[in-house]
Amino acid sequence: MKAETVPIKGKKQHRFVRALSVRLLSFILVTAALFGAVRIFLFDYVYPVDEEDATPIEVVIPQGASASTIASILYHVRGEDEKGLIASKTSFKIYVDFIGKANSLQAGTYLFSRNMSIAEIVHILCTGNQSANG
To answer: Which listed residue, of 22, 81, 94, 103, carries a Cα 20 to 30 Å from 5's Cα?
Structure first.
């Protein structure tokens, strides 16, 4: 009888260890995928468009402009064929909505550069730190 009990106990242990291993591996893979996706999103849409380009670009935000309008201005500030100050209009809108600043963006004339992140641009637009010419 004992001979039959040992293999069954060993089988149960093997199943437990296997199930635990599968769950742990799945958790690691899902975590790595999420980390990679967040990293790609940040680098492609939130971080500066060009960290090396500090050339000032004058931007005029009209009175009453919505977050969508401001996103479009920032995206197209250098023309249709060149990257503007932000990589994505959608990421700008999501960011200002997420931090609750969509209604705090102020009109005015600003100096931005392509080495500024969305967070830096939004901070300036919310504090109203306009350019000397504005």
So the answer is: 22
